[in-house]
Amino acid sequence: MKALILLLILAACGAQPAPEFFNAKRVDVSRGGRQYTVYYTDRRVEVIRLGYAKRGEHDDIRAQMIALIPEVTGCKLNEASLQGDSGEMRGSIRCPRG
């Protein structure tokens, strides 16, 4: 019973950013029937996929997560800095001055 309560509490948490993104902008996005949460600052980005993904879907999900970064942030991703998988990824971005 205690395990069930803990599971319900954790499930209610939703997408929580890494500590470096506590003061970042948050954008919730839906693409291809999936939900994502994007946290970003002027230099870093984190994308979190919400929900379950079946085997064989992860490559497409990862590509969608990468495509969301410039769309949501308006910044260019430094792909060499990208870390993570189809559940959560972080990287560096370069934003236009202005």
Describe this structure in words.
This is DUF4907 domain-containing protein. Residues 1-17 form the signal peptide. Keywords: Signal. This protein has 98 residues and is of the alpha+beta class. Helix content is 28%, strand content 38%. It has two helices and five strands. The protein has helices at residues 2-12, 58-73; strands at residues 25-31, 34-40, 44-50, 76-84, 88-94. It has a five-stranded antiparallel beta sheet with strand order 1-2-3-5-4, with helices on one face. 12% of the residues are buried.
In a few lines, what is going on in this structure?
By secondary structure, the chain is of the alpha+beta class. The chain has helices spanning 2-12, 58-73; strands at residues 25-31, 34-40, 44-50, 76-84, 88-94.
How much β-strand is present in the residues? Answer: 35-45%
From the helix content, strand content and strand pairing, which structural class follows?
Answer: alpha+beta
Contiguous helical run count:
2
What is the number of beta strands?
5
Shape: globular
| C-alpha-based Rg, rounded | 14 Å
The percent of residues in helical segments reads 25-40%
Search tags:
single chain; 98 residues; alpha+beta; 5-stranded antiparallel sheet; 2 helices; 5 strands; 28% helix; 38% strand; globular
